[in-house]
Amino acid sequence: ARLPDIVRRDPHKAARFIELQPPSKQREVLIRHFSRIWGESDAEGALAWAQALPYTEESNLARRAVCLSMSQTNPAAAVERCAENGAEGEADFEGIFQAWAQSDSAAASNWLAAQPASARVDRLRQRYVHVLAKTNPREALRMTQEAFTVPAVRNEAVLAVLHQWGLQDPRAAREWAGNYAPDDLKARALAEIDGLESYAANR
């Protein structure tokens, strides 16, 4: 029988089979694959199993697989359950958050607003702004100027939004940059739009 069929029929039997395997790359592959499949039907059960694995590296691997599986169907729950995944899973978590922002931007924004300030929250806010820029660049730019306290982070976020906006409406993006971009960023912002227009003209 195929592993997905076994997992759906008796996940605890599949888990015992994996636990009896000696440490190896094959065992890691099984853990990742099994956790993802079990997470589709019983995320809480799969997370409990992942947390109970004796080796930290394997436990983290399994948790990340379950979280990614959860993000496909319920990104809000994935964010809440998978926020503490450790440094190795940080890129996965940021991707999960971005998927949530794309599917329910209001809920993702409210969750962000409730988090204490940190470098991690700034990275998540950058993901959120990137999503928002595609549909509401003016609001995305307002957020970058109000929400980011570190000037270098704010400036990179502003440039990323202007780049996105410039692909859609370079005239409006140029007008905003000329009127509202921070003084220390105005030249770079206008140059970014110049580059987009030059590229478009030469295609």
Walk me through what this model shows:
With 203 residues, this protein is an all-alpha fold. Helices cover 80% and strands 0% of the residues. It has helices at residues 3-9, 11-19, 25-41, 43-52, 56-73, 75-81, 90-103, 105-113, 119-133, 137-147, 151-168, 170-180, 186-202. The protein starts with a helix and ends with a helix.
Draw up the topology in text.
Blueprint: H1 3-9, H2 11-19, H3 25-41, H4 43-52, H5 56-73, H6 75-81, H7 90-103, H8 105-113, H9 119-133, H10 137-147, H11 151-168, H12 170-180, H13 186-202
Termini Cα gap:
53 Å
Shape: elongated
Order of helices and strands: HHHHHHHHHHHHH
Mean of all residue-level pLDDT scores: 89
Q: Strand count, sense and closure of the main sheet?
A: none
Unreliably modeled segments: none
Tell me how many strands there are. Answer: 0
Helix percentage range = over 70%
* Alpha-beta classification: mainly alpha
| CA-atom Rg in angstroms | 22 Å
Question: Strand-residue fraction?
Answer: under 5%
- Helix count from the secondary structure assignment: 13
Annotation keywords:
mainly alpha, 13 helices, single chain, 203 residues, elongated
Brief rundown of the structure:
By secondary structure, this protein is mainly alpha-helical. It contains 13 helices and no strands.
